[in-house]
Amino acid sequence: MDITTMKEKEIVWVQILYLFVVPILLLYFKILPGNFRFVLLLTVALLLYGIVRRAHWTDTDFGIKKNFMEDIVPYTLFTVGGVLFLVWLAQVVPHSPFLEWWENAKFLLLFIPLSLLQEIIFRGILMNMLERTFTSAIFIITLNAAVFAMMHVIYLNSLFVLPLTFLAGIGFAWMYYQYKNLYLISISHTILNFVAMILGFFIIR
User: Fold this and answer.
1) Mean pLDDT of the region 50-66
2) Sequence-distant (≥ 6) Cβ neighbours of residue 168 within 8 angstroms
3) Nearest-angstrom CA–CA distance, 145 and 167
4) 200 close to 82: Cβ distance less than 8 angstroms
5) If pLDDT is split at 50, 70 and 90, which confidence band does 138 have?
6) 103 Cα distance to chain centroid
7) Model's pTM, two decimal places?
8) What is the pLDDT of residue 2?
9) CA distance 114 to 70
10) Domain parsing of the chain, residue ranges
């Protein structure tokens, strides 16, 4: 391994630590209050966006395509499969459905932006950072999923949520790795996140 490659890997690990791990720990240990999570996520997204824009990433690097509908079939199958899995899981795992979610203004206003920001951060940016530094697809997908899952430690039932979000993260990362399409992965994530939320799998601490 040459010095340049080692330096690039060190930079990526430092970025993961300070832009992904530290913000989550600040929320988890309540150094920052929970209602700051959207602001914190937006701040991290803007910092990461500044980093990659300075590196002159193109829209193609992010998976932003004009002909994004060309990948509609695999993403539709993935999303439908995910919804069916969540519905099945609700039959075998104790949960408390999020009733009357349509009356919760905070949920309605933050739900879609949060889902979109997560995909921009974890797939559009982190995934590409990893692909530019590491060569193993298994390592890239697994690390991406692990960092994505760790973000969900702020939920109350984390012993259940962490394995579920790691599995979801593997799916999202694999789909994006195979079919780099930021639009469709964001739509898929929003739909699956919505189903998981109304089934009551995610409860903020």
Assistant:
1) 89
2) 82, 145, 148, 149, 192
3) 7
4) no
5) very high
6) 26
7) 0.90
8) 66
9) 25
10) 3-198
